[in-house]
Amino acid sequence: MGAYAEEYARSIADREAFWAEQAAAIDWFRPPQRVLDADRAPIYRWFRGGRLNTCYNALDRHVISGAADRPALVFHSAITGQRRTYTYAELLERVAQFGGALIQLGIRPGDRVVIYMPMVPEAVIAMLACARVGAVHSVVFGGFAPAELASRIDDARPKLIVSASCGLEGAKTIAYHPMLEAALARSAHQPEHCIVFQREQLRADLVEPRDIDFAPLMRPGAFEPASCAEVEATDPLYILYTSGTTGKPKGIVRDQGGHAVALAYSMRAIYDIGPGEVMFTASDIGWVVGHSYIVYAPLLVGATTILYEGKPVGTPDAAAFWRVVAEHRVKTMFTAPTAIRAIRKVDPDGALMADHDMTSLRTLFLAGERLDPDTYAWAGEKLAVPVVDHWWQTETGWPIAANPRGVEELPIKAGSPSMPVPGYEVVVLDGSGDAVPTGTDGAICVRLPLPPGTLATVWGDDQRFVDGYLTTFDGHYLTGDGGYLDEDGYVFVMGRTDDVINVAGHRLSTGSMEAVLASHPAVAECAVIGVADELKGQLPRGLVVVKAGIDTPPDEIAAELVALVRDEIGAVAALRRIDIVAALPKTRSGKILRKTMREIADGLPGAVPSTIEDPAVVEDLRPILQPGA
Ligand code: COA
Ligand code: AMP
C-alpha cells in the first residue's frame, strides 16, 4: 500500500484515532473530551469539550516558540507598489491592539462582526482580532452590491461592521463607504458602530457617532491589548455566506476546533507547507479560499502568507504573479484557473516569466472551477512545476479531492482533481441513492460524518443545513456537483447539478439573478443559464419574456436589466447578455427547460424531454442560443 492509500484507509477506518492524532498540531487550553460527537447526527461535532483560541494558534504560539521575527504576512500591492512585511510579533501586536478596540466597543464572545474590506492587511488584522476575542466574523466580498451586503447584515445581525473607504480594482477606485451606507439604508438590522479604514486614494465622509476611524484605534497605548478568549472547539469562528439554490444566501458556519485541526492537517498533507515556507494564494479574503489559505492555514503552521492586491493581468502586466513569486521566494502558489487563462491570453508564450527567478516555486495549486486540460497543460509546461487541480467548496472549507503532495505525489491525471482527501469518503450516487458503477456519472456525495473543518451548520438554521445538504441521500452530504470516479478511484468533477454557476472563479446563483430580473415591471418570465466561456469558465445569460402591452424597445429593457443585476448583486455577476424572446421552453407542468437551453448554448444538441409543452419554442431559440450567435 502506498503512503496515501494507507493514510486514507486509516482516516476512514478509525476516524477518531486519526483526527485525535491530527489535533496534536494545535495548542489547546483544554484538550477535547470527545473527538467525534454523533449525538445529534446527522449534525456531527468535532472535538467537543476542547477549549482553544484560533488566533493564539495562528500568532501567539509562534512568537512564544521563538519565531517572533519570522515574516507572517507580506502585503504586496501591484496597484500602489506598496510592500509591507509583518513579522509574527508585529502582526500579533497589531491584532491584539485591534482586539482591544473591539473589547472597548463592547464586542464579546459570540458577537458578530461583518468585515467588508478590500485586500489590505487591516482586513486580516480585523479577522484575527475577532478570533482573538471570540467574536464571529463574517467577511463579505467587496464585489457584492449593497443589497447583497444588506441581506448578510440582516442575517448575521452584527454589532459592528469593519470597512474601508475604498478598494483598488485594477485601474478603478471602488468607493466602499457609500456602498456600506446604501446597504445600511436597506437593512433592518443596524450595527452599533462601523470602523472605517481610511485609504489615502479616496477618503470617506464618516457619519458620526456611528462611524469610527480605524487609524486612531491602532495608536500604541490607545487600548489595553486583548488577550485570547478561551472558546469551545464547537463555537463558531466565522460565518461565510455563499450562493445557494434560492436567492437567500446561506451562512456557512465554521467551528473553531475542527477548522484549526483540518487546516493544519491540509498544510502538511496537501500543500506541503511548513514553518517559514512561503505560500501565495491569489484569491480574495471574501471567498473561502482566502479565509483558509490566505489567512488561517499558513499562519496556523507558522508559514509566511502573501496578501496580494491586484489582478493577474493589467496591474500592470501579465507578470504580476511571477513578480510576487520571485520577490518573496514563494514555494506554493494557489489560484483559480481563470487567472491562468487570463495570463495566457496576454502572454501566450509565457515570455514574461523569463524575467523572474521562480526557482523557489515547487507547486501550482488550482481550484474554484473546473481546470480545463489546455490550461493545465500550458501552466505545467511554462512553469515547469507540478500543476495540482483540487476540488472543494465554501461548505467544506478545505479540499475534498486533491493530490496530497505532503503524503505522496500521486500520478496526476489531467481533468481530475485526483483522489479523495483523507477524511472524505467520496461516493457517487444515482437518483435512488445507490452507488453508480465506476466511470458512470452521478451526484458526488460524501458519506457522513464529514471530517473536521467542514460546515458545522447554516447560521441560525440547522434545518436548512439538514434539508439542503443531508436529506437528499440519507447518511450523505450532497456536494451539489456531478461527476464520476474512475477505475483508480480518481474523482472527475463535471459541474454543478443545481443552479450555482462559477464565473471567473466567483460562485454565483442563477436563481438569485432570475429573482432580480423578475422584479423588473416589464418582465413576465425569465431564465438565467450559465454558458461556457473561454476566459471566465462560465458566464450568465438571461432570456426574458416581456409582459403583453409593454412597448419599450427590447434593447432598452435588456440594458435596464443588465444594470439592475449589477446594482442588486454586484459587478461580479457579469450578466451582460440578455435576449428578449417570445417564449421560454417549458414542460407541460410549467417547468422551464434550462438544461436544454444550456446545452444548446454550449454547442450540444440540447435534448428535449418528451414532456415538453411546445417543441417549436426550442427551435425558435436555437439561433439565438447557439455558440457565436
Ligand atoms: N470589489 C469591487 N469590484 C470587484 C471586485 C472587488 N473585490 N472584484 C471584481 N470586481 C468587479 C470588477 O472590477 C469587474 O467590474 P467591471 O464589470 O466594471 O469591469 C467585475 O467585478 C467582474 O470582475 P471579474 O469577474 O473579476 O472580471 P475582470 O474582467 O475584472 O477580471 C480576471 C478577470 C480573470 C482577471 C479575474 O476574474 C480574476 O483574477 N479571477 C480569478 C478569481 C479568483 O481568484 N477567484 C477566487 C476563487 S479561488
Ligand atoms: P466555492 O464555494 O466558491 O468554493 O465554489 C465551489 C464550487 O466550485 C464547487 O462546488 C464546484 O462546482 C466548483 N469547483 C471548485 N473547485 C473545482 C475543481 N477543482 N474542479 C471543478 N469544479 C470545482
Could you characterize what this model shows?
The chain is α/β, with parallel strands linked by helices and 629 residues long. Among the domains are: 87-229, Rossmann fold (3-Layer(aba) Sandwich); 504-625, ANL, C-terminal domain (GMP Synthetase, Chain A, domain 3, 2-Layer Sandwich), CATH 3.30.300.30. Helices cover 32% and strands 24% of the residues. It is built from 18 helices and 32 strands. A seven-stranded mixed sheet has the order 5-4-17-16-18-19-20, with helices on both faces. A five-stranded parallel sheet has the order 7-6-8-11-12, sandwiched between helices. Strand 31 (537-546), helix 16 and strand 32 (577-580) form a beta-alpha-beta unit. Helix 6 (146-156) packs across helix 7 (176-186). The protein is globular, with a radius of gyration of 24 Å. The protein starts with a helix and ends with a helix. The relative contact order is 0.10. The mean pLDDT is 96. It binds coenzyme A and adenosine monophosphate. The site of coenzyme A (COA) has 25 residues, from strand 9 and helix 12.
Secondary structure blueprint with pairings:
Blueprint: H1 3-13, H2 15-22, E1 34-37, E2 45-48, E3 51-52, H3 54-67, E4 71-77, E5 83-87, H4 88-104, E6 112-116, H5 121-133, E7 136-139, H6 146-156, E8 160-164, E9 166-169, E10 172-175, H7 176-186, E11 193-197, E12 211-213, H8 214-217, E13 231-232, E14 236-242, E15 250-255, H9 257-271, E16 278-281, H10 288-300, E17 304-309, H11 320-328, E18 332-335, H12 337-346, E19 363-366, H13 373-383, E20 387-389, E21 401-402, E22 419-420, E23 425-429, E24 442-447, E25 457-458, H14 462-470, E26 476-485, E27 491-496, E28 500-503, E29 506-509, H15 510-518, E30 523-533, E31 537-546, H16 554-568, E32 577-580, H17 594-601, H18 615-625
Parallel strand pairs: 4-17, 6-7, 6-8, 8-11, 11-12, 16-17, 16-18, 18-19, 19-20, 31-32
Antiparallel strand pairs: 1-2, 3-13, 4-5, 9-10, 14-15, 15-25, 21-22, 23-24, 24-26, 26-27, 28-29, 30-31
Helix pairs in contact: 1-2, 3-4, 3-5, 3-10, 4-5, 6-7, 9-10, 12-13, 17-18
The structure holds coenzyme A (COA) and adenosine monophosphate (AMP).
Domain AMP-dependent synthetase/ligase: 66-448
Pfam family, one: AMP-binding
InterPro entries: ACAS_N, AMP-bd_C, AMP-bd_C_sf, AMP-binding_CS, AMP-dep_synth/lig_dom, ANL_N_sf
